[in-house]
């Protein structure tokens, strides 16, 4: 509670009038050293307002007092970023001017490209392909040797530039695995037979008679893209059905779902969204992950 101030009998100092269960607060003055520091801080803050950018002001539009020093941390950061960008541009000009194969033969330029490609991959590609490019169901693993559209440097570069089934790009990679049951082309039994035949490529069929029936249907409908031996075709983005690498899953139920209802994954075209040098860096980085193919003589 608060009472009228009075003098403390023991110290002779006037109290503040505050009382907590008989405990009173003495109204001692603040130490002079503390007051001097406090006043100095006030003075320095006023000098700071004058010297450095400070208060927002309305001058036809919102701006701020620039300060007599003309210092701007934003301008300083912008200057530093411009210096970094200028240093990078030296390499970017070379990357834009040289072919992918020429960049590979230049150790310094290749090192810069791989570092830049790794950074661009983390910013743009990792959300779908994973930070380690390991992929997920529906998003291919970029570390292995299976490539839907080809794994040479030029193939990867083309895929990056134009995307897959990206409607806004006239040169996009385009093919379609249609749904043979959904579209009424095959019956459920015929789809099951085809699935058995596809499983037979890796010795996993559990109904030999169905696999034999499925072979006929496969030859009539599926071999145009996947080839008669099921090894696929890069030109059409048709996967190899004989290996153990499956984009959506290689168990019987998932293969049935693929044949019955189709697949049509989309990858964006990065041309126009990333500059040419960055796309080249990405192509070199992805190719370096371990599964990149070499051009055949």
Give short descriptive properties of this protein.
Cytochrome Bc1 Complex, Chain D, domain 2, two-stranded antiparallel ribbon, 5% strand, 4 strands, single chain, 297 residues, mainly alpha
Descriptive notes:
- Among the domains are: 76-160 and 268-288, Cytochrome c-like domain (Cytochrome Bc1 Complex, Chain D, domain 2, Orthogonal Bundle); 177-261, Cytochrome c-like domain (Cytochrome Bc1 Complex, Chain D, domain 2).
- 46% of the residues lie in helices and 5% in strands.
- The chain has helices spanning 32-51, 73-97, 100-104, 107-124, 126-129, 153-162, 188-200, 208-226, 252-261, 276-288; strands at 15-20, 23-26, 56-58, 62-64.
- The strands form two sheets. Strands 1-2 form a two-stranded antiparallel ribbon. It has a two-stranded antiparallel ribbon with strand order 3-4.
- Helix 4 packs across helix 10 (276-288), helix 6 crosses helix 10 and helix 7 crosses helix 9 (252-261).
- The radius of gyration is 35 Å and the shape is elongated.
- It starts with 14 loop residues before the first strand and ends in a 9-residue tail after the last helix.
- Keywords: Cell inner membrane, Cell membrane, Electron transport, Heme, Hydrogen ion transport, Ion transport, Iron, Membrane, Metal-binding, Oxidoreductase, Repeat, Respiratory chain, Transmembrane, Transmembrane helix, Transport.
Task: Describe this structure in a few short sentences.
The protein has 297 residues and is mainly α. 46% of the residues lie in helices and 5% in strands. Helix 2 crosses helix 10 (276-288) and helix 6 crosses helix 10.
């Amino acid at each position: 509670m608060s009472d009228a101030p009075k003098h403390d009998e023991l110290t002779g100092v006037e109290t503040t009038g505050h009382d907590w269960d008989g405990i009173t607060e003495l109204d001692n003055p603040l130490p002079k050293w503390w007051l001097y520091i406090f006043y100095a801080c006030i003075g320095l803050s006023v000098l700071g307002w004058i010297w450095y950018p400070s208060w927002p002001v309305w001058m036809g539009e919102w701006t701020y007092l620039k300060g007599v020093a003309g210092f701007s941390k934003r301008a300083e950061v912008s200057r530093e970023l411009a210096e970094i960008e200028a240093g990078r541009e030296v390499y970017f000009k070379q990357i834009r001017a040289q072919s992918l194969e020429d960049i590979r033969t230049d150790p310094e330029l290749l090192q810069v490209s791989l570092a830049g490609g790794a950074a661009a991959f983390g910013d743009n590609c990792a959300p779908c392909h994973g930070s380690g490019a390991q992929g997920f169901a529906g998003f291919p693993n970029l570390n292995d040797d299976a490539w839907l559209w080809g794994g040479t440097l030029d193939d990867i570069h083309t895929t990056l530039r134009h995307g897959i089934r990206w409607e806004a790009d006239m040169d996009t990679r385009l093919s379609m695995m249609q749904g043979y049951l959904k579209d009424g082309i095959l019956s459920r039994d015929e789809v099951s037979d085809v699935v058995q035949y596809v499983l037979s490529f890796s010795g996993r069929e559990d109904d030999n008679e169905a696999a034999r029936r499925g072979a006929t249907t496969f030859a009539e409908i599926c071999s145009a893209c996947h080839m008669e031996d099921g090894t696929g075709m890069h030109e059409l983005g048709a996967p190899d059905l004989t290996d153990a690498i499956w984009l959506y899953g290689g168990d019987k139920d998932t293969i049935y779902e693929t044949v019955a209802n189709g697949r049509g994954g989309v990858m964006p075209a990065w041309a126009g969204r990333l500059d040419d040098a960055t796309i080249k860096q990405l192509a070199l980085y992805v190719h370096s992950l371990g599964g990149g193919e070499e051009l055949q003589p």
